């Protein structure tokens, strides 16, 4: 059961973009645990289970159905929608526009994770159409960013795309760039093992979706989600024997993450 209390997100006006800090990330994590927002995740078959467990470890409540005659209902009762293109089969292709329409109707934030748009012209065309529908956040790795944005995956490219598209751009890698086109935040947290197992980016976008569900400030929410993910990964990486033990340790670390760890470990510039 979800806690009683104020509905998630869209009421808080106390945070301003440009003020990212460990305190902000911790406050959003506390809100996640208190409010337990629902995240409807249309994600790929590879990332599905791990993403659901990462959402639970963050404090959110996942749902993942992709069936055409249910996906709008699931989206309407959620607090944020994730659209991930990783395994873009016919069922997901049908579900995605229905879910986005429901999110628009319900004024929910939705996020686009354009997995492998660099690999297929058809997928790239679909991602371009989805980007034109104005997701609140675009989260991509460098190759996906370059294919979608048709420019180098660097600070200037991310800022220019965010300005042109009116969304938050989160360009991830060893250092994450988060920008709304005016303010930019650079997060250096994370662990090399994140690049040695699949679905870390997919899960990161899902954690950002949960943060967006409890904050009006999409820039700070996105930075918070990526910082929380990166810091939990550092804690997990220090204990992991390799890529096999890393994912469950990351779930444990995210579940146990506290203000002391965030304050001690956050590495960001803005
Ligand atoms: N070498 C690295 N060192 C530290 N953190 C990293 C490294 N590579 C990626 N990360 C972190 O891993 C997360 C996922 O980013 P990445 O860009 O690798 O996603 P991705 O390529 O979309 O992943 P996937 O498609 O497998 O889900 C981000 O939080 C990022 O900061
Ligand atoms: C490996 C893989 N293939 C399609 S989606 C996915 C998960 C990483 O994005
Ligand atoms: Mg990815």
Give a verbal description of the structure.
The structure is a single chain. The protein is of the alpha/beta class. The chain has one domain: UDP-N-acetylmuramoyl-L-alanine:D-glutamate ligase, CATH 3.40.1190. 48% of the residues lie in helices and 13% in strands. It is built from 11 helices and 9 strands. A 9-stranded mixed beta sheet has the order 2-1-3-4-5-6-7-8-9, sandwiched between helices. It is globular. The structure holds adenosine-5'-triphosphate, 2-(4-methyl-thiazol-5-yl)-ethanol and magnesium ion.
Which small-molecule ligands are present, each listed once?
A: adenosine-5'-triphosphate, 2-(4-methyl-thiazol-5-yl)-ethanol, magnesium ion
Count of domain modules? 1
Number of helices: 11
CATH homology group: Ribokinase
Question: Major β-sheet, in short?
Answer: 9 strands, mixed
* Shape summary: globular
The N- and C-terminal alpha carbons lie at a distance of: 38 Å
Radius of gyration: 17 Å
Strand/helix succession: HEHEHEHEHEHHEEEHHHHE
Determine the strand fraction and express it as a percent band: 5-15%
| pLDDT < 50 stretches | 1-17
CATH class: Alpha Beta
Number of strands: 9
Please state the second-level CATH architecture: 3-Layer(aba) Sandwich
Task: List the strand order in the largest sheet.
Answer: 2-1-3-4-5-6-7-8-9
Helix percent reads 40-55%
CATH-defined fold name: UDP-N-acetylmuramoyl-L-alanine:D-glutamate ligase
Overall structural class, as computed from helix and strand content, comes to alpha/beta
Mean pLDDT: 94
């Amino acid at each position: 059961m979800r806690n009683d209390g104020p509905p998630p997100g869209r009421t808080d006006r106390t945070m301003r973009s440009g003020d990212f800090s460990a305190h902000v990330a911790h406050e959003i994590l506390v809100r996640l645990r208190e409010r337990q927002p629902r995240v409807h995740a249309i994600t790929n078959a590879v990332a599905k289970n791990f993403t659901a467990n990462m959402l639970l470890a963050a404090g959110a409540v996942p749902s993942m159905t992709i069936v055409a005659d249910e996906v709008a209902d699931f989206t309407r009762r959620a607090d944020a929608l994730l659209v991930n293109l990783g395994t873009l089969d016919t069922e997901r292709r049908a579900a995605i526009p229905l879910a986005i329409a429901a999110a628009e109707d319900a004024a929910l934030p939705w996020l686009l994770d354009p997995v492998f748009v660099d690999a297929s012209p058809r997928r790239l065309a679909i991602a371009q159409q989805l980007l034109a529908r104005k997701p609140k956040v675009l989260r991509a790795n460098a190759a996906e960013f370059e294919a979608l944005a048709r420019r180098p995956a660097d600070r200037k490219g991310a800022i220019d795309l965010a300005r042109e598209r009116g969304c938050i751009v989160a360009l991830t890698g060893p250092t994450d760039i988060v920008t709304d086109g005016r303010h930019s935040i650079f997060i250096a947290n994370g662990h090399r093992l994140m690049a040695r197992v699949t679905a870390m980016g997919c899960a990161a976008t899902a954690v950002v979706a949960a943060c967006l569900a409890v904050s009006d400030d999409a820039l700070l929410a996105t930075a918070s989600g990526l910082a929380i993910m990166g810091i939990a990964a550092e804690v997990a990486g220090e204990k992991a024997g390799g890529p096999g033990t890393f994912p469950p340790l990351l779930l444990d670390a995210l579940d146990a993450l506290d203000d002391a760890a965030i304050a001690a470990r956050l590495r960001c510039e803005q």
